[in-house]
Amino acid sequence: MSNPTRRVGGLPPQTAIDIPESYRAMPRWWHEGSAWLDGLPDTVAALCQRWKLTLDGAAMHGSNAIAIPVRRQREPLVLRVAPPDPRSVEEIRALRFWDGRGTVRLVDADSATGASLLERLDGERTLARLPLHEAIPIIARTMRRLAIPAPPDVPSTATIVRERAAELEPEWEQLGRPFDRRFLDAALAATATLGHTESTLAVNGDLHFEQVLAGTREPWLVVDPVLLRGDIEYDLARILWSRLDEMDDDDIQRHIETIVREADLDRGRARSWIIYRAVDYWLWGLAFGLTEDPVRCARLARVVLPSRRRSATTPASG
Asked: Structural domain of residue 32, as residue ranges?
């Protein structure tokens, strides 16, 4: 169902956008950013003039950016505009780095306005629409495809873990010890391993099914990537918990094995990352009053942790 929109007058008709009312009503604009939002129609008009674009459909939006279908001559593109902040600059850098290798192609960008001009993908078709048995191998192969040598100055997965590790136990205590100590201990043990890595490969730090869209240049392409360096296994937990409600316990184990195989991951590090990320997000979610995701994190941790114990006590075959 389409969102009600409000047209802002005074602009050339080929560049006068309709701002979705659902975008205007988001809480983020209540205190900050309202000036940027009010100036958005003029910003879009200026970008359309600069990049020789005409509007080609209704604007869409997520939690941060607005995406406007446009054309340059006959070429279908998307104009994405977000409030200018470090995240916008980092995303533009990430898209330039991967340069269409498994990601949406960046055609042009203006960091000052938080704007990027992108190849057009099908926003109605994401991997979230595919059955899991089809989507899991695709997203796993995407993880591996993005794993090329990374710039040395981007954030490291190991650094992220080291900086977070000391906060886990105090948060667990402050929240009233909300879950069994063994999950916390397992996460802390994982940080000792994950806080060091020899990998210098690129990692998308925000990979999940909704972020992989159908394309024409390639069947499936990533949008809104976050460029990190280190362990490819970093976002495996997010991939799982984003559709965990569709899986039974055996499915979870089976999908982990599929991703490990298809992405050529280290099985031990993969499970350590799942435990660490699940406990980390479990605590964060409880601290911020989330009600659904902490339950998913709890279930994911409970399914994965026993298998780690069993694997440690099972004699090696052969």
From this structure: 5-120
